[in-house]
Amino acid sequence: MAERTSRRQRVDERHRRILDAARERADADGWAAVTTRRLADAIGYTQPVLYSHFPGGKAEIMLAVALEGFVELARRCRAALGPGPGRAAIEAVAAAYLDFGREHPAVYEAMFSEPLDTPFGQDGTRPELRAGFDTLAEAIGDDDGTATEVFWSALHGLGLLERTGRVRPEHRAERVAELAARFAPPSGTGTRPPD
Amino acid sequence: MAERTSRRQRVDERHRRILDAARERADADGWAAVTTRRLADAIGYTQPVLYSHFPGGKAEIMLAVALEGFVELARRCRAALGPGPGRAAIEAVAAAYLDFGREHPAVYEAMFSEPLDTPFGQDGTRPELRAGFDTLAEAIGDDDGTATEVFWSALHGLGLLERTGRVRPEHRAERVAELAARFAPPSGTGTRPPD
DNA sequence: GCTAGTTTCCTAGCACCGCTAGGCTAGGCT
DNA sequence: AGCCTAGCCTAGCGGTGCTAGGAAACTAGC
């Protein structure tokens, strides 16, 4: 019995090491640099071992990294969200969101750039994918969903355009402030953009 | 002389066929489906011929497709922009922008998902890359640039999240309306979101 | 201790990728 | 006629994701 537990532990630990190696390498050099051979090398085994953990191959590994990313992103946004809605809360959540995207570009890419067959529409969506969206909705005081979708889109676009150098890097704070001003709830401190 | 012109014409026409084949195949099946072998087959030549037109290989072909995309996207946005700022103009420009992204997903991807070493910051940016941005700025009546960057980010994010199925497809019109309401200029018809 | 069966892992190979070196052929020039 | 150049193709490099099949090690029953 202890024998079997030990075996299970070894398998689990290897599972973790695959995901950690994939995430770190991808965040450092992009998903193209994550190859099955390098990944196998990183964990001290050969390619086929990866397929015993992830039969779907590289795509399934990316999906697993993405799912963990959703949990982490939601956790960070939740932590940044203060007691109630308002511009400060929106800015804090936005900054947390963008920070995550900047720190883990490849995880973020796996989360959002791939079609990801699992449903995302608000009905059948898995709870871990839903938590981040709910936090964004709470930040801007939206209960319909449309405003949250637009707010989220703006965050998503901001992170991507910043990463690919399409917007002025030094104006990041102004953009976050502008975004918060545009999406502050009507009854908040103010709805007009600054300046 | 006519001989040389004819030769030049043949080269130019082949150049065009490469770009057209790449764009069509990519928009239909994604850039991963655009391989140098298939591309060479499509134009009736072999692989090395591609490299006489585009020494940088596939990356340079994608860049060329992207540059043409910038021109077309700017043209469409400009055409959609009415006489002056206002919610209707914003909605029209936003719809034109999103339509382009939906019709040419791979062109759009080449335009914005790649790092694209040519500068994008407002100083040394090539005019064809600048035209679309200027149109967006004009639509929302912004002259600073920050609001335009955020507006553009929202459009960018909307298109991408829509394509990857992260937002409810049937709410597209509501999102565009919401976006226009949030970014309508202060002196416009109204600055409050609808509903 | 010995054998049979299972689990675990690696070797070797497939088809495909982007890309390139080198040779063949056809045409213009001297 | 002979050479030179441009244009194109054949063949091949190293790398990719992925998989079939066999070797080795470990477990269980006697």
TrEMBL record, chains A, B:
Name of this chain's protein: TetR/AcrR family transcriptional regulator
Alphabetical list of InterPro entries matching this protein: Homeodomain-like_sf, HTH-type_TetR-like_transc_reg, HTH_TetR, MT1864/Rv1816-like_C, Tet_transcr_reg_TetR-rel_C_sf
Record SUPFAM superfamilies: Homeodomain-like (SSF46689), Tetracyclin repressor-like, C-terminal domain (SSF48498)
Source organism (scientific name): Actinomycetospora chlora
Keyword DNA-binding tagged: yes
Protein's UniProt keywords contain Transcription: yes
Keyword terms: DNA-binding, Transcription, Transcription regulation
Record domain HTH tetR-type: where: 18-65
Bilayer-spanning residue ranges: none
Pfam families: TetR_C_33 (PF13305), TetR_N (PF00440)
Record domain HTH-type transcriptional regulator MT1864/Rv1816-like C-terminal: where: 91-180
